[in-house]
Automatic annotation (TrEMBL):
Keywords: Hydrolase, Metal-binding. GO terms for molecular function: hydrolase activity, acting on carbon-nitrogen (but not peptide) bonds, in cyclic amides; metal ion binding. It comes from Desulfitobacterium chlororespirans DSM 11544. Carbamylation allows a single lysine to coordinate two divalent metal cations. Its cofactor is Zn(2+). This is Dihydropyrimidinase. Belongs to the metallo-dependent hydrolases superfamily. Hydantoinase/dihydropyrimidinase family. It holds the Pfam family Amidohydro_1. The modification N6-carboxylysine is found at K149. InterPro entries: Amidohydro-rel (IPR006680), Hydantoinase/dihydroPyrase (IPR011778), Metal-dep_hydrolase_composite (IPR011059), Metal_Hydrolase (IPR032466), Metallo-dep_Hydrolases_sf (IPR050378).
């Protein structure tokens, strides 16, 4: 069945154009002004913008908590992604203790294949970097799983020798290291000081993770990546000094920078001292000051920051966050955001007068390039998947948990006013969101095997 989208303004990472789109067999067949009327379905996009479907390269599904519960998963959260304008997600799958990386991926895949409303791929969070785990990389990369999460802090932290050994094997095979950069020793020291003083409210989560903790770890991660000659993405960078450290090291090693909407629109005032409700903002790294938030926008404007991901964790405040009621160190880290990322960043960038091609690059094109999805995903071009967002720039609405598809009982962005919103979403040519409502079905999403940077000649 052929579909024709008429009268819209197409926006890619490199250009704007007023044109029609012809879709055939799930692909973009033609872009032009006189395509004809032979389509079976016609969609009028008059006064609308047409973006490539968003790619959220950092989400967490079905995250286990200390009480045995898990966060929300593919069944609800991928519908939320679709409603928000995201058509592809990359899920960080935890290597379960006592299991191989492949076994953990198989578990996630068994859920996603029947539940995912959008296309998906996997990273692996490495918890046991022994010889057997490292040997698995050689099989996983050809299967399309080309990126691996390495923690430098929290319960999943690897030491420098483990990090270096894993990076060396990734470098040999062309994989990408995705690093959570915080100094675990600094954090543990400050947490112990707070515990001794009975300072256990969520406010002290912010106090226990200073900028120095993040930036020291960024420096060390760069040193390790250079030693191993390993391509690396530094996840969820929260401050401009960290951005500058990375950009200064890029000449000799491919290093990419991810940040998140919460660091660009929220700040540390959310950690009101003494109030447990601020557990909603326990994320790592934490929110920074208003001054740091404004500085971070420099990295958006000068194109140093490569991608914006949600770092979505579908926790509930009433259940999961209460696990740390007596001690902030037990509060599950993370918060929901998969549904709001696309429009939140559209609104934030346009408010600051930043070009919409930069928006597309941050939320779709550059993630596709870094993670080996381009040009199948992340752009609007003949031959690419017809993953499209038809967007109404005049729609005004307010973010509220009561109206979100995400399963969480809260949103960190409660009450923020938005201008611009999703009208329709197409996944491989099929309409899955119409008038802001999900109209697809679970299981529409497909696993997408990814290329390595090496297979793309390292070009992003």
């Amino acid at each position: 069945m052929k579909k024709l989208i008429r009268n819209g303004t197409i926006i890619t990472a490199s250009e704007y154009c007023r044109a029609d789109l012809l879709i055939e067999d799930g692909k973009i067949a033609c872009i032009g002004t006189n395509i004809g009327d032979e389509a079976d379905v016609k969609i009028d996009a008059q006064d609308k913008l047409i973006f490539p479907g968003g790619i959220d390269a950092h989400v967490h599904m079905n995250v286990p908590c200390s009480d045995g519960s898990v966060s929300a998963g593919y069944d609800t959260e991928t519908m939320a992604a679709a409603i928000g304008g995201t058509t592809t997600i990359l899920d960080y799958v935890l290597q379960e203790y006592g299991k191989s990386m492949q076994e953990s991926i198989d578990g996630a895949s068994a859920l996603a294949v029947n539940q995912a409303a959008v296309d998906y791929g996997f990273h692996v969070i490495v918890t046991n970097p022994d010889a057997q785990t490292i040997a698995e990389i050689e099989d996983l990369i050809p299967s399309g799983i080309t990126s691996f999460k390495l923690f430098m802090a929290n319960d999943l932290a690897l030491d420098d020798q483990q990090l270096l050994k894993f990076m060396e094997e990734l470098a040999r095979l062309g994989g990408l290291a995705c690093v959570h950069a915080e100094n675990g020793a600094i954090i543990a020291y400050l947490q112990n000081k707070h515990r001794q003083k009975k300072q256990l409210e969520p406010y002290y989560h912010f106090q226990s993770r200073p900028l120095s903790s993040e930036n020291e770890a960024i420096n060390r991660a760069i040193t390790l990546a250079k030693t191993a000659d390993c391509a690396m993405l530094v996840a969820h960078v929260s401050n401009l000094e960290g951005v500058k450290i990375i950009t200064g090291a890029r000449a000799s090693t491919p290093i990419y920078i991810e940040s998140c909407p919460h660091y660009l629109v929220l700040d540390d005032e959310e950690y009101g001292q003494g109030e447990f409700t601020t557990a909603k903002y326990v994320i790592s790294p934490p929110l920074r000051s208003k001054e740091e938030k404004e500085k971070l926008w420099v990295g958006i404007k000068n194109k140093a920051i490569d991608i914006i991901s949600s770092d979505h964790n579908g926790f509930n405040y009433a259940t999961h966050k209460q696990l740390g009621k007596e001690d902030y160190t037990r509060i599950p880290n993370g918060g929901p955001g998969i549904e709001q990322r696309f429009t939140l960043m559209y609104h934030a960038l346009t408010e600051r007068g930043i070009d919409l091609s930069r928006f597309v690059d941050l939320i779709a094109t550059k993630p596709a390039k870094i993670f080996g999805l381009f040009p199948q995903k992340g752009t609007i071009a003949p031959g690419s998947d017809a993953d499209l967002v038809i967007f109404d720039p005049e729609l005004e609405w307010t973010i509220t948990a009561k109206e979100q598809q995400q399963a969480s009982d809260y949103t960190p962005y409660e009450g923020l006013r938005m201008k611009g919103g999703v009208a329709k979403v197409l996944l491989r040519g099929e309409v899955i969101v119409d008038a802001g409502k999900y109209v697809g079905k679970p299981g529409d999403g497909k696993f997408i095997a990814r290329q390595t940077l090496r297979s793309q000649n390292g070009k992003v």
